[in-house]
Design brief:
The protein is an alpha/beta fold. About 35% of the residues lie in helices and about 25% in strands. The strands form two sheets. Strands 5, 6, 7, 8, 9, 10, 11, 12 and 13 form a nine-stranded mixed β-sheet that branches. A four-stranded antiparallel β-sheet has the order 3-2-1-4, sandwiched between helices. The structure holds magnesium ion.
Length: about 350
């Protein structure tokens, strides 16, 4: 099958700079891609790499996109170098949309989703700014909050930690994301403090590329009661298999936009009955729509990290998806639906990806 291929590069200022352990983000860069088949069916996708996470760069994706030329086909997409995972992701999503459009012309088709809606986690800013952001988000119904740590001084952040916990509405959970900023000692100090706090999990306490990272993470996961989550550790080719093989007892944070083979990774995680949290890569509405479709299609199994004694009668756990990130961009045409503690399937389909594409012309 032949496709007409176009791409547009973007560099979009965010509304409010985002501070993480990697530094301050003031803009987001990537590519939107568009495929059109011979019957004028159109599919859109997005390559939104994060080199700090270990992905390729936007320049590499752009060079890969140029090399594909104006017309491309399934074999050329499949033959993209594994390094260009985000570009492959974009083209696979665009092809998937064309396939879905083709199937929807068949009246016999049936859509399969595993959830009517997904709960979302709200991203709150690093440092003291978090305190002002929790009440308005609690007000509209958010009950899971993600706080970036490892950004400032550890003593300051630990000092703030109790204030942040106290600001949470009752029954709410906090996710801490260190983005790999800590060494073993800092991670231990935090995990000791987390033990009797409402912390759902601590994400990537030490760097994915730290020496002995796998043993270190497995050791920390075994030594403390608060579950740990992998995020940056899952970006490279084969990472998901490696961690499943190692018997990772914690959570897998899946940013579908950063995976070259989303379907393959999710199939392996489902087979392993892994605890999965879907998460935004701070991509535009185009990539977010594809990522959220993957989250809706996910079939959660009994989640052993949240209920250690889970038996066969235990209900499956659907954890809040890390997509409470909008409004994100200075230009709202690139945002998904804003400020919602839940997202419904129809909200996802209502995301106007075409408008984002057209906004770049
Ligand atoms: Mg993370």
């Amino acid at each position: 099958m032949k496709f007409r291929f176009q791409f547009r590069r973007y560099c979009l200022p965010v509304r409010v700079p985002i501070r993480t352990a990697y530094g301050v983000w003031t803009e987001r860069a990537g590519l939107l891609v568009r495929l059109e088949d011979e019957n004028r069916r159109v599919g859109l996708g997005e390559a939104a790499p994060i080199p700090e996470f270990g992905t390729e760069t936007v320049d590499e994706d752009e060079a890969g996109a140029r090399a594909l030329g104006e017309w491309t086909h399934a074999d050329a997409i499949a033959a993209l170098p594994p390094r260009l995972a985000c570009l492959r992701n974009a083209l696979t999503a665009a092809r998937g949309e064309i396939e879905a459009a083709r199937r929807s012309e068949d009246p016999e088709r049936s859509v399969e989703d595993n959830a009517p809606y997904l709960p979302l986690a709200a991203l709150i800013p690093a440092g003291k700014l978090a305190l002002a952001q929790i009440p308005p988000r609690s007000e509209i119904g958010f009950r899971v909050f993600k706080w970036k740590v490892g950004v400032g001084d550890i003593a300051d952040e630990l000092g703030l930690f109790d204030d942040v916990c106290a600001a949470l509405p009752s029954g709410a959970k906090l996710r801490l994301d260190a983005n790999g900023a800590w060494d073993r000692r800092r991670a231990e100090r935090w995990l000791e403090r987390c033990a009797d706090r409402p912390v759902e999990f601590v994400e990537q306490p030490v760097a994915a590329d730290a020496r002995g990272a796998m043993d270190l993470l497995l050791g920390l996961a075994g030594d403390y009661p608060t579950p740990l989550a992998l995020d940056e550790s899952l970006i490279g080719e084969g990472d998901v298999e490696r961690w499943i093989g190692a018997g990772w007892p914690g959570v897998y944070v899946v940013k579908p936009s950063l995976l070259g083979d989303v379907a393959g990774a999710l199939a392996r995680l489902e087979k392993a009955k892994a605890a999965v949290v879907f998460s935004s890569a701070l991509e535009t509405a185009v990539g977010a729509r594809a990522a959220l479709r993957a989250a809706f299609a996910w079939n959660p199994s009994t989640d052993s990290t949240s209920s250690p004694q889970a038996g066969s009668g235990q209900a499956a756990v659907r954890r809040a998806a890390g997509f409470g990130v909008w409004p994100l961009f200075a230009d709202g045409r690139f945002d998904g639906p804003t400020a919602m503690p839940f997202i419904r399937r129809e909200d996802v389909e209502r995301i106007d990806a075409e408008a984002a594409w057209n906004a770049l012309s």
